[in-house]
Write a structure and sequence with these properties.
The protein has about 475 residues and is an alpha/beta fold. Helices cover about 65% and strands about 5% of the residues. The protein has 21 helices and six strands. It has a four-stranded mixed sheet, covered by helices on one side. It has a two-stranded antiparallel sheet with strand order 1-2. α1 packs across α16, α8 packs antiparallel against α9 and α12 crosses α13. It is elongated and about 95 Å long.
């Protein structure tokens, strides 16, 4: 009997999450260039399979807009049949990482890298979906999409069908934005769902010349990978894509888990177990030839705000998705593509960290530059390269800050010149320190005090010894060194 109050809250929350997830599952799949049903399959697996496993009780998993960029590139490069193998392998790798208790280490990734990754993803999504909202063919590269926007706008202005498509997409975004200004009781119904319903009714009522979702049927869309697809594992490119899916999907999921933990007072996330749950879910998705899943902050926050108490809410949302795709598959054919594109343009915009970038620039400019660099490389080159550049810059910045070294020279005019070193002496600070030491007069005795150093690496120790030897040889007075660490 004690569980009945929780069940009541969880059922209500699961219905809210279902109506939030439905258009997003379809929209993300279409944006990724795969059948709409595969997005729903991933949502179902995220709810029922990953949702039943331990880790985070209120985190909701499914196809994520951020990962759609990776999926699109993988399908374009290796084909849809290979996607299942990539997702399956990534899931197994995630499970192994969780079993080895590596999940907690994802929390050590610089938040600037994560925000930069999300910003880059957001820009790529916006650039891609603007073309979809206008019913126009998009250029292949992200930079090409951005550069081609003025031309696309000119083409749309001279095309009645494109204008109608843009109107549906823009109207969808307007409804989502304005819906958040209504009373909280009204917002129980998600704005994205309302926008899609209104767009569908407008298309039917006015016979608008816009494209709708193409339905292939659930059984026709689910294609487990065959032996030819597994043979692609010998490709270095495929292995790199698997690694990218694993690292980026894991980072998105575990950072989403940390964000959701701040929204409620319940049990905290067990990161290693959650990573294993994500791995099992992705292994199942891969075996079915579906998209990868990851934890999604939009669905998870909706779950918490709707009053969910246990993992039953996320499992039930998967059940509702399964019933929908089984009993009402033809309803998907009514959904206008520009409306789904509008939802994703809004989702991409939400990924852009405007306020975070401003605050970082004021307090930590180095972190702000890492954020921008990560986003720019993702847009210009690719997701995996952008994340690697961001991580590399973060490591370099940390090493530079950890090597803080201060040199204070005291010259009283007579007697020895005193040079006091404090902090951490590493090779990163050697050029500046040696320039100061070598500028000291060679006809005066020098006393170098190293007692203020916390750490001296081998390169710095050797360089200081060589300087002292050269100074003593060239000058009339030796160098006296007071040892430190």
């Amino acid at each position: 009997m004690n569980k009945l109050p929780n069940l009541k809250h969880d059922v209500a929350a699961s219905l809210v999450v279902f109506v939030v997830a439905l258009p997003l599952c379809v929209g993300v799949a279409v944006a990724a260039g795969v059948p709409a049903e595969l997005g729903l399959v991933t949502g179902i697996v995220g709810g029922i399979v990953a949702g039943m496993l331990p880790g985070s009780s209120l985190l909701v998993s499914g196809p994520a807009a951020g990962v759609s960029v990776l999926v699109f590139e993988a399908v374009k490069t290796y084909g849809l049949p290979t996607l299942g193998v990539i997702v399956l392998a990534a899931g197994l790798l995630q499970f192994a990482m969780g079993a080895l208790r590596l999940g907690r280490w994802f929390r050590a990734i610089s938040i600037s890298v994560v925000e930069g990754m999300l910003a880059g993803i957001g820009l790529v999504i916006i650039a891609s979906e603007v073309y979809a909202a206008a019913g126009l063919k998009a250029p292949a590269s992200s930079l090409g999409k951005i550069a081609g926007l003025p031309g696309a706008a000119a083409d749309a202005l001279g095309n009645t069908a494109a204008l109608a498509s843009v109107a549906v997409g823009a109207g969808t975004i307007a409804v989502i934005v304005l819906w958040r200004r209504l009373p909280k009781k009204v917002q129980i119904v998600p704005g994205a769902l309302v926008a899609v319903v209104l767009a569908t009714l407008a298309e039917l009522a006015f016979h608008l010349p816009v494209e709708a979702v193409k339905v292939h049927g659930l059984l026709g869309s689910v294609q487990p990978p065959g032996t030819d697809a597994f043979g692609k594992l010998a490709s270095v490119g495929v292995l790199g894509t698997i690694l990218a899916f694993t690292l980026i999907g894991s980072a998105v999921s575990l950072f989403s888990a940390a964000a959701v933990d701040r929204l409620h007072d319940g049990t905290r996330t067990a990161y290693d177990k959650e990573l294993m749950a994500q791995g099992v879910g992705n292994a199942v998705c891969g075996a079915l030839g579906a998209m990868p899943l990851s934890a999604v902050i939009v669905r998870s926050s909706a779950n918490v705000q709707a009053g969910a108490k246990t993992k039953a809410s996320r499992v039930l949302h998967g059940v509702w998705l399964l019933l929908f795709v089984t009993l009402m598959p033809s309803a998907l054919e009514l959904l206008p593509l520009p409306a789904l594109a509008g939802i994703l343009v809004h989702a991409g915009w939400k990924l852009l960290p405007f306020s975070q970038l401003v605050s970082l620039w004021r307090a930590h400019r180095g972190e702000a530059l890492i954020l921008v660099a990560t986003a720019v490389v993702i847009v210009a080159v690719g997701m995996f390269q952008g994340v690697l550049i961001g991580l590399g810059l973060s490591v370099v910045k940390t090493a530079w800050e950890a090597s803080h070294l201060k040199l204070e020279v005291v010259d009283k005019g007579t007697g020895p010149i005193q040079a006091h070193l404090s902090g951490n002496a590493t090779f990163l600070r050697l050029p500046k320190i040696l320039d100061r030491l070598e500028s000291l007069p060679q006809n005066r005795p020098v006393e170098v005090d190293l007692s203020g150093l916390h750490h001296v690496d081998h390169a710095c120790q050797t360089a200081l010894e060589n300087w002292a030897e050269r100074h003593s040889t060239a000058g009339t007075e030796p160098v006296k060194v007071t040892a430190g660490v």
